[in-house]
Amino acid sequence: MEAKRPEIFDLFRIYRLLFITGLGIFALLIYHFGGFESSGISFNSIILLFGAACLGLFLRSLRRKLFFGKEISLHQSMSFEVVMQYLHFMSPLLPEKTFESEFLARETRISSEKISLWLHSRVLGVYFICSLAGLLVSILYASLVFSVIFAVSAAAALLVAFLRKHIGVLSYVNSVVFGVIVWGLEGLVVTSVLNHFVSPADSWTAYLILTAVIELSPVPFAVGLAELPLLIFESPVIFWLCVVFHLSRIIPVLALSAVYITRYKFKISDFFNPRIIEFLHRYPEQEIPGIEENEDAPDVSIVIPAYNEEQRLPAFMKDILNYIEANSSRLSIEVVIVDDGSSDNTVEVAQKLAGENPSVRLLRQVRNQGKGAAVRRGMLEAKGRYALYADADGATPIRELDKFIPFIENRDKIVIGSRNISASDVKQEREGLRSVMGAAFYKMVNFLAVPGIKDTQCGFKMYRRDIIHKIFTRSLENGWAFDVELLYLAQLMGHSIVEVPVNWHEVEGSKISPVKDALKMLAAIFRIRSRQGGFLSDS
């Protein structure tokens, strides 16, 4: 831990020095141009500039979406754009291209070839568009020498695209064309404001210079450095309008990053450590160590957390024991019932089952600690090569285990049942109000914590033994949010999660209060993000 800390501090020290230098330049510019109150900028102008910045963010996200097509959603595209712009503003010296490559590979199923194509075309596209911007400025001011220089620069970018076969000329052209559209539409809104104060030539020049410097600046948030070239105008109005637009580009990114940075498991400190790219590159599912073989270990452990389940547990256990008998020739199965401090006759029921069936054993919690604590103990003490935990109500029939086995034997790390994925052979019964509230809840959890998971709460999940200890020993949630925390940790560690549609039916006796527990879960999500987030927390 101590040996790695200087890497963070050294990079942060560089950023701090650059940022302080930028603030110093900005302060000198304010001294030179005068205060904002003397600029005469109206509130409507500020709103328009903020709208232009938001439009630019949306169009850049749309550009990404159009490039990757159906492989990512528009919302994913927006979230990826926010993360990358956040990185650019916060930590411009980190290799953005490498970071984005590893980030996209981790969060999507897009091929490495297409990611590489996107990155190369975008980098060359920025170079080409900046060259076009310089050419336009040179033409506006009738500067023949600079016009030639920027024209040659733009031509060189095109030539490189044609010579590098792996870039793909068509994809590159599409990327460049849409990039020009982004800058053009954003620029039209910005210059429509500036044109009230200065000539169109000065308006477009100021916008293009500012935007190009923001793209290329090594200073965090491009503070000071982006506004420095505006000295050529000697115009307080241009300076302050550009400052407003500059801030308008930063504010939406910072606001949205409050959601998306932790959604993708980052902490702010991760962006100041060059080792973040190394940690993003870890793909544990591709580096599966051999599972310790124990001749006496069963193939599957079924863990059942039970709290006051004397009524529902016997029926589910009957189904499980029948399943074990029917499949004894191909699967060896143990059942671990974890009593969570029940106050009814659950213990007596479980003891009787364990006494009559050698494949059943009982674990007892000293007191009621919550479903998460019961599942954690059962999974950590399970002996099977794979461990499944299932709710005691039997809402998901035990025969659905047959659907999980092919995935888990195919080296997938985690297989979870889903009530939100439809299939022709699946029947899912749910009350209307609970169904509506459930759909809203899952979207919230997906948005805030575990992207890509459609159903976090189905009580039917299987884990490989080689990752149970890594994940469950880090889990701290004892209540209903433990499922979200486990999946959050699994995604943080880079483990593959497969969702499989399962049959499910509502069973009377649920201990969940839809409204009360939903509010508790919302609070728990923010607690999990704060407590568990950060790729470098344990490094």
UniProtKB/TrEMBL annotation:
It is found in: Endoplasmic reticulum membrane. It catalyses: a di-trans,poly-cis-dolichyl phosphate + UDP-alpha-D-glucose = a di-trans,poly-cis-dolichyl beta-D-glucosyl phosphate + UDP. SUPFAM superfamilies: Nucleotide-diphospho-sugar transferases. Residues 301-472 form the Glycosyltransferase 2-like domain. GO terms for molecular function: dolichyl-phosphate beta-glucosyltransferase activity. It is an enzyme of class 2 (transferase). It comes from the Bacteria. The keyword Glycosyltransferase applies. Its main location: endoplasmic reticulum. GO terms for biological process: protein N-linked glycosylation. It is a single-pass membrane protein. Pathway: Protein modification; protein glycosylation. Its EC number is 2.4.1.117. Keywords: Endoplasmic reticulum, Glycosyltransferase, Membrane, Signal-anchor, Transferase, Transmembrane, Transmembrane helix. The chain crosses the membrane at residues 14-34, 40-59, 115-135, 141-163, 175-198, 204-225, 237-261. PANTHER family: DOLICHYL-PHOSPHATE BETA-GLUCOSYLTRANSFERASE (PTHR10859:SF91), GLYCOSYL TRANSFERASE (PTHR10859). Belongs to the glycosyltransferase 2 family. This is dolichyl-phosphate beta-glucosyltransferase. It comes from Sedimentisphaera salicampi.
